[in-house]
User: Fold this.
Amino acid sequence: MRFKRLLYILLFLTATSFAKDIVYHVPIQADIDLGLPAFIERAIRQAELEGASAIIFDIDTFGGRVDGATQIKDAILGSKVMTVAFINRRAISAGALISLSCDKIIMTGGGTIGAATAVDLSGKKASEKVISYMREEMASTAEQQGRNIAIVMGMVDEDLSFETVVIDGDTIEVDDIQGAKEGKLVTLTTEKALKYKIADDKAETFEEVLEVLGFEDPQIVYMGVNWSEKLVRFLTNPVVSSLLMTLGFLGLLFELQSPGWGIPGTIGFVCLALFFGATLFTNLASMTELLIILGGVVLVIIEVFFLPGFGVVGILGGIVLFSGLFMLLLPEHPISQDWESAFWGLTIGIIGAIVAFVLLGKLVVKSEFWQKISLSSTERSSEGYSTSIGLENLIGQEGVAVSDLRPSGWVLVGEKKIFVVSEGEFVPDDNRVKVLSVDGNRVVVRKIS
Assistant:
């Protein structure tokens, strides 16, 4: 029995001694958008399940969306696996926030990190509210990982200045960082990042990073964006999402001008479905926003099909609908830049749809295809054409409403049941009415007091 136990222990120690470390290689390249967090979260989740020893993020970015970077930062800080930022040339703006959230930062020679101030859509410095948010977001992340807060805050706010910093308990005079002066943003080269303990080490290649971390012949898992994540990143691109909204509205506008359901409505529905689906996938939208939009649509339908004219219900439905669409463009925790972006995105989508509807409408009517599917001439009654269905003899006769007229409904005149419309007033069921006029298949009646 003792021999078997010793044998099991020996086999276990032998297996563990030959087991390779698992290291994940996760690229963060180009712009940081709302489709990237899903990829990063998937990589971290998979690395945790496989018991990986480290996740190395290969970073080379000029930044991007702050809300996307914040989601990535939260995922990295919550990781149970050691995280390493390999700044392979640059980590600017939102890229700096992601790098600072990692347990270790390793930079290539000639690399840069910093310049993380927030800007608006025109490229100008954002409001103090936005700057304050980004400044404290960076500071809290640096504090979590034990990095110098003063330098990190200087990456965001050019109004800050400092002459000394405390590194490992020692006070160091700062005389080689241009951004330490008021009116300048902090951006660190590799050497300065190492000097002030923002970066932990230096390496030129991914293989050198493995050596620095002490991994010998590890098993490398190269992560890549899958097709669904690529699709979402494409659909959440600001240009593409605005185009989808425009085409969606445009298709529905064309569909309203033709009977039944056809190609324009289908295209519009698909575009809006892609737009809504992408926003749901990236957590930009929740079921609350979709329910608000659905409520607006229901109110508009009630106004069009069940209530006469266009009144309070229709206006309220339009307000609710566009409010839901506006909320759909906002992230979970919006800053002023997000409000502005959402406003212009919705405005461009609506105006673009209306302009395209007018311009394309004129072109379509003149096209050869339209001439084939529509009548190019008018059939006038003076030329012998008539749309009469033989109800003219009912003029002046009285009948009984067999349904509510809102303002249209059914009336029984003699033994004939016909579809009529009132003069605009509501006529309850069982009330007597009089036929005023007949124009083709349109029969107008008036309630008899």
Summary: The chain has a mean pLDDT of 77. The longest helix spans residues 336-366. Residues 385-447 form a domain with the OB fold (Dihydrolipoamide Acetyltransferase, E2P) fold (CATH 2.40.50.140). The longest strand covers residues 82-92.
